[in-house]
Amino acid sequence: MLAILIISSLPLYVLYVVYEYLNSPLRNIPAAHPTTPFSSLWILSRTLTGQRNRSIHAAHLKHGSIIRLGPSEISINDPALVKTVYSAGNSFDKPAWYHIFTNYGSQPLFALLHGKPHAQRKKMLSKIYSKSSISNSPSLATTISTCLESHLIPSLSSQETHEVHDLFNALAMDLVTAHLFTSRNSTRFLESKLERHHFFEDLYQSRRKYFAWSSEVPILVWLVGKATFGRFRIVPGWVDDVNTEIENWNMKMCQACEDNMADEKTDDEDCVYYRLRSRGILSQLEAASEVLDHIGAGHETTGVALTYITHHLSLSPHHQALLRAEIVSVGVSPTFKQVDSLPLLNAIILETLRLNPPIPGSQRRVTPKAGCTLGEYHIPGGVIVAGQSWSLHRGFWHDPEVWRPERWLEGSGDKEGGERWLWMFGSGGRGCVGKWLATYEMKMTLAAIYSRFETSVVDDEGIEMDDR
Fold first, then answer.
1. Which SUPFAM superfamilies match (predicted)?
2. CB 3.0 to 4.6 Å from 181: which of 161, 185, 259, 325, for a disulfide?
3. End-to-end distance of the chain based on CA atoms, in angstroms?
């Protein structure tokens, strides 16, 4: 009986799909796949199997700067289009997808969907993350000097080979938590291989393969668990336990700051948590959610970027020699101001972030109720629209897959035109609030390493970013 009912309904369903296709305002936008005007299954399957970014990029190469990923989802790949969607003042909110970044039931800056609440929260954070605050912070200068000179450099000197991604994650975590909670309340992962292995391997990274399921099909994840009474779950129950352990770990550092504030210690004024809690700006739970988000974004992206930079330099002794000469030219133990002025170091970082952006995927937004115009198309309200740095960073150059820092040196024809296509920190009012902290950490770390060491790749199997 059920089979008969389904078969008899198929013609009606087909008519409905054809009607929706013929009347869709998006019908003239090139489809990334023949099924995308009718279904989101293609892009969902690409996402769940770790092929999303490259599949979208291949579609852009074939069909142009605007493509259709689903019945109500499009992707853009042009700086002018990105400016329309992401510029400050435009009313493109975030979709509910970003709720996945909620902690303790409270939404941090990154998970705030609407423009006004986001602007209010970002205003609380902008000054302490500004370039002037970062570069002139005595506590940050002391912290990075201690991390590099007392821990990272001696560690690199002690053995012949190193798994640098592990070390860079530990370094970035120690630095970001010091900025969030002060150095006395921060992690000491560079000092303890056991602690960092537990956090990164047993907790933080162990959840990664389930993230796409939780973020893309949360209702399905919930329904399957309920329907099977928990006997079968798409996302295992231990993932919830790991998330709870990470939240508890973060809350201990928050509570340590609370105790310091109760003791009226005033040297915490340049730490993020103090700023969020002083004068009752945020509750303890709201502040804890905010800093936990900064911990995730602040350590992982910097760790990935430093790993790729050292990988590329290790394959190029020529660039290493030039970089070493440039760093040595500003003397021993240079300040950030001196390091920040080095053109080749800056070019190496920019080129690596172009080719291997730590956040390569779609930055989703929702078109406003009144709709908008993107290129030659009018896009109605409620449509998901997104750009991705993986594609933008390959859209201007004739040889985009080649690592060539010289693109970013003065006199290069690529430098002026190419800057418009760089998008590793986003843009507009929702651009990365921590970009100057990340830049500070990368430049000081690379200066410390390459003024002392030469690096080479021991196991030349290459490195490949997870494409989800």
1. Cytochrome P450
2. 185
3. 41
From CA 377, how far away is CA 66, in angstroms rounded? 9
* Angstrom distance (rounded) from CA 172 to CA 358: 14
Task: Name the strand (E) or helix (H) holding 365.
Answer: strand 362-366
CA 22 to the chain's CA centroid: 38
- Within 13 Å and on the Cβ side, how many CA atoms surround 82? 25
Place of tokens 């843009």: 427
Phi, psi of 92 (to 5 degrees): -95, 105
Q: How many residues does the chain have?
A: 468
Beta strand residue intervals within 143-279, DSSP E: none
Q: 293 is written with which tokens?
A: 């988000």
Whose tokens are 């109605």? That residue is 380
Helix (H, G, I), strand (E, B) or coil at 363: strand
Distance CA 144, CA 388 (A): 32
Torsion sign over Cα 193, 197, 199, 200 = positive
Is 149 within 8 Å of 448 (Cβ atoms)? yes
Closest CA to 286 of 105, 433, 132: 105
3-state secondary structure 262-277: HCCCHHHCCCHHHHHH
Q: How far apart are CA 147 and CA 175, in angstroms?
A: 8
Q: CB within 8 A of 141, min separation 6: which ones?
A: 335, 336
384, 365 Cβ separation under 8 angstroms: yes
Q: What is the pTM of this model?
A: 0.93
Q: Which two tokens stand for residue 273?
A: 């948590």
